[in-house]
Every structure is written in structure tokens, then in C-alpha cells.
Amino acid sequence: MQIQMNSTALPSTLDEVALPQKLPPLVLVAFTRPELLQEVLKGIQAQSLLPQQIIAFVDGARKPADQGLIDQCVQLLQAFSSCVPVKVIARSQNLGCDRNVISALTEVLATEESLIYLEDDTVPAPHFFDRMCRLLVAYRDQPDIFSVSAYANLPDGMDSLAQQDLMVSNRFFALGWGLWADRWQSIGLIDRPPAFNPFGQFHHIPATVQTKLTLVNQFWLEKNGHTDWVITTTLAALDRGMRHVITTQSMVRNIGFDHPEAKTYRGKEPAWVNARYNPDYRPNRLPIGTTLPAALAQPLSGVELAQYLLHQGLWLSPRALLSFWQRYPDWPSRMAFGRLFVKRLLVMVRRLRQGRPV
């Protein structure tokens, strides 16, 4: 289902966007990492524009050892009310990361027009909240824009896009972002199964220089039987033809990658995570319109996609191979996917013998 574009004129800069009298709440999700949460709260305290309210969702314990860490998080949040009013919602049971976040967003947006979101490992730069508030006002009447984000991750070879302050993206970034109630409600994730993929399977996802990364992430989720609310949200917005406005330098810094409680990317922080972080960044100039830059909208050729999937260590089942052959009927593409199938055939056979998804 494609979203119809709105003809409402956009401002040229964020500085000319007036802040609303009632600011969107800052939704903060936490669990068992009080030492990281403390750094996030310091970042919030240093904002050039303070939130009027924080709504904090703290998931319930998975095991008895979690409770002490959860209690520390609740205490930190309650103490922070001396700076910004904090409403703490402590879950009575463990919902898990995906369900806790999806439920939190749904609960808040049932009564609020919009919100701004942080997690307990995402430290905001000083201008984060001000710029997110203004972006939510600027794009409120542009229904083809699903979210606004303060995290920058540009595809390789696309550094020319960084000459702008902000850009339109086909990829959703959940490290410090904001959205509106109508957009969130339009994808209805609260009523979807955890592994929801509107495209069915990974090989049906449209492939561009940005979405190829989502395609790969979805592949690994399917093969490992995992779920991820960020990937699910990305696919739901993509399926509806909605895009995102992101900063070209990051206004948030992730500090959780080497934490033992991290859900993904455990261990040493990858070099790309905070590569574009700039603590002094204050984006102002808005992109013209809400269409994707041509370089991001261009579909990948079958040969390009097959080479990328091989480099990423993916394999193809016969069904996936047939799907790609139908999407890319030219001979070079079919040959490229055929070579990928043959080169990774042993992986598929091994997984079949182990009774694992292929």
C-alpha cells in the first residue's frame, strides 16, 4: 500500500520552525544496565532544550539476578525527576526487548500525537531533543515520512550526501528517533506476530544500496529464528512506501555494544557504529521535498545483489534462487545467483541435515 503525498510546503530550515507549546514526551526504554542509563540521563540533562516529560519503560526480570539491576534503573529514573518529570512504568513480567518497545510506543501514542525515543545505551548530544522536536513539527503533515532520526549511517560511496544537514532515507534508524501516532498506528505492529515481514521472506524485499542491508538482516533473523523490532518496523514502513528523514552526522552515541547485556553485536564496538558522531552537530537546512535521492532510489542489478549476498555469507534455498531468477530474468543476473547457490550449497545441505531453516 503506497502512501499518498501531501502538498504541504516544507520550511527551508529548522530554525524557522516554531516549537509546540506542549513538547512530545521523551520515551526511554531500560532494562538491566544502570551504569549505561546513568550516562544517558547525563546526556538528557545537558540538552539545550529539556523535555517536559520522560516516560520510562523498564522491562521485568528474566531471572532473579536481574531484579537488583532493574531496581537500580528505577531508582535512577525516579531521582532524575528533580531535573525532568519522569513517569516510570516498570513491567511486572519480562516482555522481551521487541514486545516491550512495541507496547511502549503503542501505549504512549494512544494518547500523544508524537514522541521522541531513546534507549538506555544511546547518549544524546546537546541539540538532539530540540532538533527532533522541530523535525516532528516540520514533517507532521507529510504522511510519506514515517520517522525522523538523529543517527547517521550513509552507504559506502555516498559521502556526497553528507553535504546536506539532513536527507531522506529509505532505511529506518532507531538510535534516537521520533515519529507520529498516525504513522505508528498505520503499520499496526502491536497486532502482528514477532517475526512479521510484509514481504513474506527475505528474498522478496526490494534491493537498493540501503535496503540490501535490511535484506541481509532479515535473512539472518529467518535462519536463526530470531526477531528484531527495528527490522520489522523498517520492513513495515518500506512496504507502505514511507521514508525517513535522518541527520547526516549523528547526534547520538551508542555506548552499549561491549556490554554483556547487549542484545546484538556483543563484544568490541564495530568501527562504523559511532563513525559519524558529532557532539556539536546542530542540523538546520532541510532537504528539498520528501523524495529519495536518486542514488538511494536506484534498484540494484541482480549481479550487484548476488555479489553482495555472497560477500555477506548468505546462501540460497531453491525457493530463494527461483524467486531471484523471476525478479532478475536477464542472463548475467541468473548466472550470478546460480553461482551463489552452488558456492554456498554445502551450507544449505548441512543445515538441512541439522533440521535448521534454509
Describe this structure as you would to a colleague.
- The chain has 358 residues and is α/β, with parallel strands linked by helices.
- The protein has two domains: 26-297, Spore Coat Polysaccharide Biosynthesis Protein SpsA, Chain A, CATH 3.90.550; 302-353.
- Helix content is 36%, strand content 13%.
- It is built from twelve helices and ten strands.
- The protein has helices at residues 34-45, 66-80, 97-109, 128-138, 181-187, 211-224, 229-239, 294-297, 302-311, 318-327, 331-343, 345-353, and strands at residues 26-30, 54-58, 86-90, 114-119, 122-124, 145-149, 166-169, 177-180, 243-247, 252-254.
- It has an eight-stranded mixed β-sheet, with helices on both faces.
- The protein is globular.
Give the termini separation: 29 Å
CATH superfamily of the largest domain: Spore Coat Polysaccharide Biosynthesis Protein SpsA, Chain A
**Strand order in the largest sheet:** 3-2-1-4-8-6-9-7
Relative strand content:
5-15%
The H/E string reads: EHEHEHEEHEEEHHHEEHHHHH
- Largest beta sheet, briefly? 8 strands, mixed
Structural class: alpha/beta
Compact summary:
The chain is globular and about 65 Å long. Helix content is 36%, strand content 13%. The protein is α/β, with parallel strands linked by helices and 358 residues long.
Write the layout of secondary structure elements.
Blueprint: E1 26-30, H1 34-45, E2 54-58, H2 66-80, E3 86-90, H3 97-109, E4 114-119, E5 122-124, H4 128-138, E6 145-149, E7 166-169, E8 177-180, H5 181-187, H6 211-224, H7 229-239, E9 243-247, E10 252-254, H8 294-297, H9 302-311, H10 318-327, H11 331-343, H12 345-353
Parallel strand pairs: 1-2, 1-4, 2-3, 6-9
Antiparallel strand pairs: 4-8, 5-10, 6-8, 7-9
Helix pairs in contact: 1-2, 9-11, 10-11
